[in-house]
Design brief:
Blueprint (H helix, E strand, L loop, with lengths): L1 H28 L28 H15 L2 H14 L7 H16 L1 H6 L8 H9 L1
């Protein structure tokens, strides 16, 4: 029995410090060091920055979001959201036709030409239908 107790004691002597260090590390990472507003600030030296990230144009962000929505839901939902975004942000109107054509092409790839055409509606001068027709 003393041999078993000795083995348990040695195991605890090795494992317990590791557990305590890990739990302490996790506890420190959960502390709000930035203050009461909850934001975290990371600092980096400008010497280590190789390339700045390019900001994406709003129309590119919208197009990618709508293409994802088309895949996850359906083209009708994506077209509705395109129309709402253009109404909400008129600056996107000049890009509406190209986004709708991209949605049309993606709809053909995902749903086939016949089903994709069934989602067609007069958003951005029927550009969605134009995109469907281009992919046929």
């Amino acid at each position: 029995m003393t041999h078993t107790a000795g083995r348990i004691g040695r195991t605890l002597a090795l494992v317990l410090p590791v557990v305590l260090v890990l739990s302490g590390t996790l506890a420190v990472t959960r502390v709000n060091w930035a203050g009461s507003n909850g934001s975290q600030i990371l600092t980096a030296s400008s010497e280590n920055v190789s390339v700045r990230a390019k900001s994406r144009a709003p129309q590119d962000v919208l197009r990618d979001a709508l293409l994802t929505e088309l895949q996850e839901k359906d083209p009708g939902t994506a077209l509705t959201h395109l129309q709402r975004e253009v109404e909400h942000r008129p600056s996107l109107a000049q890009h509406c036709m190209s986004i709708a054509r991209a949605l049309g092409r993606a709809a053909v790839e995902h749903y086939g030409p016949v089903k994709a055409q069934s989602y067609s509606r007069p958003v951005c001068d029927t550009s969605f239908a134009s995109g469907v027709a281009q992919e046929r």
